[in-house]
Amino acid sequence: MTFLHKKLLLLAILLSLVMVLLPSTPPGVQAKAQTQELPVYVVQEGDTLGTIALRFGVTVDEIISVNPIADPNALNIGQRLNIPGLEGVTGVLASETLLFGSSLTGLTRQYQIDTSGLAYLNRITSPSEVIAGLSYIIPVNEESSPLLPVVSVTTDTTLLEEAIKKSTSPWIIMADNRIKASWDIIPGEALYGRSDTEIEQSPFPGIESISFNNLPIIQGETLQVEISTSSAVEITGSFDGETLHFFSEDNGTYYSFHGIHALAEPGSYPLELRITNEGGNEYRFAQNVLLIEGGYGNEWVNVPEEYLDESVIAEEDAYLQPILEQATPERFWDGQFRYPVDEPCINSVFGQRRDYNNGGLYFYHTGLDFAVCAQNLNIYAPARGRVVLAEELTIKGKAVLLDHGWGVFSGYWHLSEFNVSVGDVVQPGDIIGQIGDTGRSAGPHLHFEMDITGTPVNPETWLNQVFILPAP
């Protein structure tokens, strides 16, 4: 081989190496191609690159590599970040609190996403992990709205019949819901479509809506379940094995109130509803619901030692429990509860984890303590109710207990005197007693308590929130 041939061969090899090492497209175009199809996350309050990376299972460096981030320590709320590493996922990654009745299948149909992508984003390994009240990441297409529930097929109807009622085609519904054949439809489940007419957002035929006052459920708070129906039904239910009592005044809207214990462990708990319609058909739906901490603090209280005898405390609680567990079918109260004292000033809130006498007893504060700040000691009925207890107890001192109906009670402890008797019906603003210092008390005050079928709940919620709107 001549020197010229060797030189040409060496030049060709070098040219080939250069072609391999050079990008096939300009740097700017290549970066755009890498990021234009990536899903987008909108920065929320409290987010950092570290928490975002952890949430999506990527590294901070990987996020920085696909985003024009000048300062990794200075994110702005509303800032849009491309998220790498989520194969097959597109759109805006939004956080949605799941409603009761949500299912993995329903979410994939509503948002037109693959089950695998949704499961990967939320680390779901089983359909049972679709927990009401939990925040899930949902990829949302900004160019089109999520589908709406348009049809719910029952055992008594067909997809064709329901589609005709909604002026749509059964084949369109099957396509939108990725159903291969009509026999794959489970009776009672919601099917989604592109329609301006939304059906009952409920897993039960004849049920117009199922709503909760709190999702997730909160430690120490009142759980209210409200169910609207198109006809009279019979409803029973349970939360963590405890019965939910339902009441209605018009056979159209049904209410259940349930007390969540202030010491309940945070986590997911089973909630079940059973509904029987006029035809005798029973529908059952069960789902785990998230319960979170109430954010209560700690306090230390000193009282006479004789009031820390746990056997005495247990005996008094056992005496009151049968009264508090009654669920009177008549609702006495109407609208918001009023404060039980004039010039209310609070010196101890509900839920505080209490240490009595430096380790003599550990428990939590079951009510709201009002100090004496007014020019009188009057205690007023906060709402209409029937007196079911008016006597002196060892721990609670002179006490009054009002039944407001539907399992809702209010209690007044440590009174100096009471001027009502069992069986009396009191109205809002009626004086029922005077503030005192009887029983296990560290000084003159009113201990005001709200109980739902035997479980103390946060009284401030009842003083600041309307659970049922007043009748017009």
Biggest pleated-sheet summary: 10 strands, antiparallel
The CATH architecture term of the domain at 298-464 is: Distorted Sandwich
Gross morphology: globular
Structural class: alpha+beta
Keywords summarizing the entry:
472 residues, alpha+beta, Membrane-bound Lytic Murein Transglycosylase D, Chain A, 10-stranded antiparallel β-sheet, 5-stranded mixed β-sheet, 10 helices, 28 strands, 19% helix, 32% strand, globular
Explain how this protein is built.
With 472 residues, this protein is of the alpha+beta class. Strands 17, 20, 21, 22, 23, 24, 25, 26, 27 and 28 form a 10-stranded antiparallel beta sheet that branches. It has a 5-stranded mixed beta sheet with strand order 8-15-14-10-11, with no helix packed on it. Strands 2-1-3-4 form a 4-stranded mixed beta sheet, with no helix packed on it. It is 19% helix and 32% strand. Strand 23 (397-405) and strand 24 form a beta hairpin. Among the domains are: 92-140, LysM domain (Membrane-bound Lytic Murein Transglycosylase D, Chain A), CATH 3.10.350.10; 148-193, Membrane-bound Lytic Murein Transglycosylase D, Chain A; 230-292, no CATH class; 298-464, Glucose Permease (Domain IIA) (Distorted Sandwich), CATH 2.70.70.10. The longest helix is centred in the first third of the chain and has 19 residues, at 3-21. The protein has helices at residues 3-21, 27-35, 49-56, 60-65, 104-111, 115-121, 159-165, 170-176, 310-324, 459-464, and strands spanning 40-42, 80-82, 92-97, 135-140, 148-152, 190-193, 207-212, 217-218, 222-229, 234-239, 242-244, 247-248, 253-259, 267-276, 282-292, 298-301, 346-348, 353-356, 361-364, 368-370, 378-380, 385-393, 397-405, 408-418, 425-426, 431-435, 446-452, 455-457.
